[in-house]
Amino acid sequence: MALGKKFFSSDESENEVVTVKEFQEMLEEYDSVTGVINIGDWIPWINFLDSQGRRMCPGYNLGLEVVTSILGNLLHGFNWKLSDNMKNEELSMDEVYGLGTIRKYPLIAVMEPRLPLHLY
C-alpha cells in the first residue's frame, strides 16, 4: 500500500492495479531513464530529503575536493595489485541487487609503497 492506494498484492485473488513483476519493471525502467530515484518526486511531503538543487549540502564541493585529493594521493603514492591468490582474469565485477551497489565478491587490493619508507 502506498499513500493509501493498493497498487499490488502478493495474493492473486485480490484486485490490483499492477502485478508485483510489472511494478518492478516500471521501477527499473524509471531508474534506467532518470539514473536515480528522487523520493521527493513520489512523495512530496518528504521533499526536504532531496540532496540536489537549492537545498544541497553546503560542504558538498569541499568534501568532493578532499576525497578527490586523498584518492589521488593514494593512487600516486602506491603500486596497487590484487591479492596473491587472485589473477586479473578472475576479477569479478558482479553486483548484488539491492538498495546500494554492492559487489558480489569483495575486492582485495594490496598496496606497495613506490618510494623508500623513510620518505613517507
What does this structure look like?
Belongs to the cytochrome P450 family. The protein has 120 residues and is α+β, with helices and mostly antiparallel strands. Helix content is 31%, strand content 12%. The chain is built from 3 helices and 4 strands. It has helices at 20-34, 39-42, 60-77; strands at residues 78-82, 95-96, 102-103, 109-113. The strands form 2 sheets. Strands 1-4 form a two-stranded antiparallel ribbon. The chain has a two-stranded antiparallel sheet with strand order 2-3. The radius of gyration is 23 Å and the shape is flat. The model has no long low-confidence stretch (mean pLDDT 78).
In short:
This protein has helices at residues 20-34, 39-42, 60-77; strands at 78-82, 95-96, 102-103, 109-113.
- The whole-angstrom Rg is 23 Å
User: Number of helical runs?
Assistant: 3
Q: Name the structural class.
A: alpha+beta
What overall form do the CA principal axes indicate? flat
Strand count: 4
User: Could you give a short account of the major beta sheet?
Assistant: 2 strands, antiparallel
Head-to-tail CA distance between termini: 58 Å
Mean pLDDT over the full residue set: 78
Helix content: 25-40%
Strand order of the largest sheet: 1-4
Low-confidence regions: none
| Percent strand | 5-15%
Cofactor: heme
Protein name: Cytochrome P450
Organism: Heracleum sosnowskyi
Keywords: Heme, Iron, Metal-binding, Monooxygenase, Oxidoreductase
